[in-house]
Amino acid sequence: MKTKQLEELKRECQDCLRCELGKTRINIVFSDGNPKTARAILIGEAPGENEDKTGTPFVGRAGKLLNEFLEKAGISREKDLYIINTVKCRPPKNRVPADSEKKACEDYLLKQIEIINPKLLIFCGATALKSFYDKKIAISKIRGEVLELEIGGEKRKCIPIFHPSYLLRYHSLEEGSPRDLMLKDLQKIKMFINK
Ligand code: URA
User: Fold this and answer.
1) What is the pLDDT of residue 103?
2) Ligand 1 centroid – CA 94 distance (Å)
3) What is the pLDDT of residues 5-24, one digit of tens each?
4) DSSP secondary structure string, the chain?
5) Which atom of ligand 1 is nearest to the CA of 85?
6) Which of 49, 58, 82, 100 could form a disulfide with 33 if both were Cys (CB 3.0 to 4.6 A apart)?
7) Residues 191, 194, 195: CA angle, nearest 5 degrees
8) For 142-164, what is each residue's pLDDT tens digit?
9) How many CA atoms does the CB half-sphere of 157 hold within 13 Å?
10) What CATH code would you report for 2-193?
11) Which residues have any ligand 1 atom within 6 Å of their CB?
């Protein structure tokens, strides 16, 4: 059932020209992970060059770093997560997607959330956070907190985390460093989804 609904939605996205990003994409980047077993949906920012080429989210440098952190925290990318982005097409030169582009793509994203109906939404980075949370707050101040937000007419638990691109700039693992906090947040997420 889920698979069929998602396949139909994907076909719709493949023909989508609701915003300018549709004109320059190579592929739509619909999702990764297993819709049947996923306990959480991880929402990133937008596809980059590698994602546009392959049609799969988080396969470039940031994606590889994300995979390392997931593995360290004991979260299976293939089984525990369903991975999407705020927009399905690559913004030129990897710029941040415009509000109008996110709005144009919002229906697809909400449909995916509704179909999967996960235990948790993970906002990976400031762009995903801002798409759902209207208070002005830095990701560094709110990461790791469990928020309860109304999304698509349902109250949903959400946890913001750093985006792996941000972590590419910080290598320290010492207590309180961005990488240390990312691991702690993912360990918390692991506990949360296994409850
Ligand atoms: N960054 C994102 O936010 N999403 C991707 O799919 C790849 C990089």
Assistant:
1) 98
2) 10
3) 999 999 999 999 999 999 99
4) -HHHHHHHHHHHHHT--SSTHHHH-SS----EE-TTT-SEEEEES---HHHHHHS-SS-SHHHHHHHHHHHHHT--TTTTEEEEESSSSPPGGGPPPPHHHHHHHHHHHHHHHHHH--SEEEEESHHHHHHH--S---HHHHTT--EEEEETTEEEEEEEE--HHHHTT----STTSHHHHHHHHHHHHHHHHH-
5) 4
6) 82
7) 85
8) 999 999 999 999 999 999 999 99
9) 11
10) 3.40.470.10
11) 44-48, 51, 57-58, 60, 62-63, 85
Ligand 1 pocket test: which of 45, 83, 84 has the largest number of ligand atoms within 8 Å of its C-beta?
45
29 CA from centroid of ligand 1 (Å): 10
By the 8 A CB rule, do 43 and 85 touch? yes
CA 44 to centroid of ligand 1, rounded, Å: 5
User: For atom 7 of ligand 1, which residue has the closest CA?
Assistant: 58
As a dihedral over the C-alpha atoms of residue 129, residue 133, residue 139, residue 141, rounded to 10 degrees, the angle is -160
Q: Are 55 and 10 in contact (CB under 8 A)?
A: no
- Evaluate the CA torsion angle 130, 135, 141, 146 in order and state its sign: negative
The residue ranges of every structural domain in the chain are 2-193
**Radius of gyration of the chain measured on its C-alpha atoms:** 16
How many angstroms does the Cα of residue 87 sit away from the middle of ligand 1? 10
